[in-house]
Amino acid sequence: MKPVVGIVATNKMQKSVVVQVERLFHHKLYNRYVTRKSRFIAHDEHNECNVGDRVRLDPSRPLSKHKHWIVAEILKKARIYVPPSAGNTADSGSKTEISVSSST
Question: What's the angle, vertex CA 77, arms to CA 21 and CA 37, rounded to 5?
Answer without folding.
Answer: 10
